[in-house]
Amino acid sequence: MYQVKTYNAIAQAGLDQFTKEYQINQTDNADAYLIRSVNLHNQNFPKSLKVIARAGAGFNNIPLDQATQKGVAVFNTPGSNANAVKELILSLLVACSRNLFAAAAYSAQNSGADISLRTEHDKTKFKGTELTGKTLAVIGVGHVGSLVANAASALGMNVIGYDPYLSSDAAWHISTTITRARTLDAALKDADYVTVHVPKNEETTGLIGKDQLDVMKPGAHLFNYSRGGIVDNKAAVAALDDNKLATYMTDFGEDILLNRNDVIVTPHIGGSTDEAEVNGATQGANTIRTYLETGNIQNSVNLPNLTVPFAAPYRITIIHKNIPNMVGQIATALANAGINIESMSNAARKDVAYTMIDLDNLKNEEDNKLIDTLGNIDAVYRVRVLKH
């Protein structure tokens, strides 16, 4: 029986993915956490914890180093809220181009018998532009960015995509009408609108700062619906003050952005739709089941991807440091125990590696002894024995 602990409100459709072999929120000593936005940085993980799945794309709320050292696999659910973010960006593009926020605020403050005459006189203040023929730069064309790029192209916009990490698989999702820029500056320099869709890490923090804003043409509009900190807010405000930037819209508020007519801050609603919550919960639950039941890894944020059909009666999975002779030590330990290896697979991700060994025979009474033997090898974080 597997134990799952949830944090935040997890969509019932996701919880329904668990079979009768799983119990939900029956103990704190869980095998798996299914979470959304809860901050786990100050939590001590129980020894029983093997996997954390976040129903969403971001994972800044999870202490990855601690998880890895305790042998806990961490997953996110990339793409689960991509359509929600795409639709919000499209709505903001229209709202921005047509000055809808300012127009609505004006109408909300004006009433009376002469409202029609005053509105007819004042409406020229809110005259907008059309998106067709305008240029949109999409920085990051992964799950969200590719959808935004394709949708904007369908609206008649000229779309330029920039993503130095674009994989061949992701490239298939991008329309042939989209121009691929070779540098960030090349993507920015002619754009009327710029939208950012990259993960947050050391390389992308401050990705759009003073130098990049200086490259953009005067009157451009900037959107950050990726992560806070990817756009340097101080630099953005300075560009607004200097009339280099016309509008800045973001999902990540900060005091410096408040009470400005040229800034729109939304309360972190990019992926907040009923459908996105169902998608994330469902994907997260299925990821937990796959990992616990087969050891296969896909979309982990701290371990390498490794997926092998589980056809043998037994499987041993080992999370360990990526150092020389680890596979040799593991194989030797199995040989000394008189255990024949049917197949072995190994993958590495920076300093951590993952090894899966399929066995055709393993006596039940040897399980604990084998786990202890392998677990006592230096640089091994966790050993699991799975039965098919």
Uncertain ranges: none
CATH fold-level assignment of the largest domain: Rossmann fold
Q: Report the CATH superfamily of the largest domain.
A: NAD(P)-binding Rossmann-like Domain
- Rounded to the nearest angstrom, the radius of gyration is 25 Å
Q: Calculate the terminal CA-CA distance, rounded to whole Å.
A: 14 Å
Return the string of H and E elements. Answer: EHEEEHEHHHEHEHEHEHEHEEHEHEEHE
Biggest sheet architecture? 7 strands, parallel
- Adjacency order of strands in the biggest sheet: 8-7-6-9-10-11-12
- What is the count of structural domains? 3
- Residues in helix, %: 25-40%
Structural class: alpha/beta
Q: What would CATH call the architecture of the largest domain?
A: 3-Layer(aba) Sandwich
Q: Overall 3D geometry?
A: elongated
Count of helical segments? 13
On the 0 to 100 scale, the average pLDDT is 92
TL;DR of this structure?
The chain has 388 residues and is an alpha/beta fold.
Write the layout of secondary structure elements.
Elements: E1 2-6, H1 12-15, E2 22-24, E3 32-35, E4 51-54, H2 64-69, E5 73-75, H3 82-97, H4 100-108, H5 115-122, E6 135-139, H6 143-154, E7 158-162, H7 168-171, E8 179-180, H8 184-188, E9 193-196, H9 210-215, E10 220-224, H10 233-241, E11 245-250, E12 263-265, H11 274-294, E13 314-321, H12 326-336, E14 341-349, E15 352-359, H13 367-375, E16 380-387
Parallel strand pairs: 1-2, 1-3, 3-4, 4-5, 6-7, 6-9, 7-8, 9-10, 10-11, 11-12
Antiparallel strand pairs: 13-15, 13-16, 14-15
